[in-house]
Specification:
The protein is mainly beta. The protein contains two helices and 17 strands. The strands form four sheets. Strands 6, 9, 10, 11, 12, 13, 14, 15, 16 and 17 form a ten-stranded antiparallel sheet that branches. The protein has a three-stranded mixed sheet with strand order 5-7-8, with no helix packed on it. The longest helix is centred in the middle third of the chain and has 18 residues. 28% of the residues are buried.
Length: 230
């Protein structure tokens, strides 16, 4: 049984929660049961999980990203600790109103969930969307929120993370420059950085991701959520 805690926040018509399912979930019918404190009768619904048919691609990167040195491994561990701290922000109501928008209007060059093989050896899965762009092109905040990480990382390069409340976070990787600082409050469409080719990349682009609590999800699925407006 898959158990995930839902955190609800008030809306003009009641309450809402945002939840995610792991990409590794097997296809089939999933029963969703929501137990409400103080109520003996749970709310029950079903969700049909389909085979996503994620594509696979072969990529070539610098050898150091496949077999990092001890110093580089230490840097990666420090980067991971910084992300854990950023995502450990306590649950809070939405810091935004209305739908999420794309960080740039450009072609998608890498799909969410894509299975990747680096240098014919290392396998991984892509937990974001890659968007085309030239070095220096603007990258915009997907929605209102607060900046919880601004860091030059080994693998993700110059990176920004924004907390949006309701358990939602967005990340922007491989930037060439930052337009925000840690702790800044940002609005949807505000520049947060510039396209770059830093970290483990094959060329300039933006890796954009959205996280729901502890799981990265397909950004396209979040764009479609009808979040209430004032």
């Amino acid at each position: 049984m898959l158990l995930r805690r839902l955190r609800f926040f008030p809306t003009p018509t009641g309450a809402q929660a945002v939840a995610a399912l792991p990409v590794e979930l097997e296809p089939g019918t999933l029963t969703v049961e929501v137990r409400i404190p103080g109520s003996a009768t749970p709310l029950v619904a079903t969700v049909e999980v389909v085979d996503p048919a994620f594509p696979e691609s072969q990529l070539s990167v610098e050898p150091k990203f496949i077999a990092p040195s001890p110093a580089q491994k230490k840097r990666m561990e420090e980067d991971q600790a910084a992300f854990r701290e950023a995502f450990a922000r306590p649950f809070e109501p939405p810091l935004f109103a209305g739908p999420f928008g794309r960080p740039r209007d450009s072609a998608v060059t890498g799909q969410f969930g894509e299975r990747r093989v680096f240098n014919g050896k290392k396998q991984s899965q892509h937990y974001g969307t890659d968007l085309a762009g030239a070095v220096g092109d603007p990258v915009l905040a997907t929605n209102d929120g607060v900046v919880v990480l601004v860091r030059d990382c080994f693998a993700s390069g110059k990176s920004v993370a924004i907390a949006h409340g309701a358990g939602l976070f967005s990340v922007y990787f491989h930037l060439s420059d930052f337009d925000v600082r840690h702790g800044d409050q940002v609005r949807r469409g505000q520049p947060v950085g510039k396209i770059g080719a830093t970290g483990r990349v094959t060329g300039p682009h933006l890796h954009f991701g959205i996280k729901v609590t502890d799981l990265y999800v397909d950004p396209d699925s979040v764009y479609r959520i009808a979040f209430p407006t004032p």
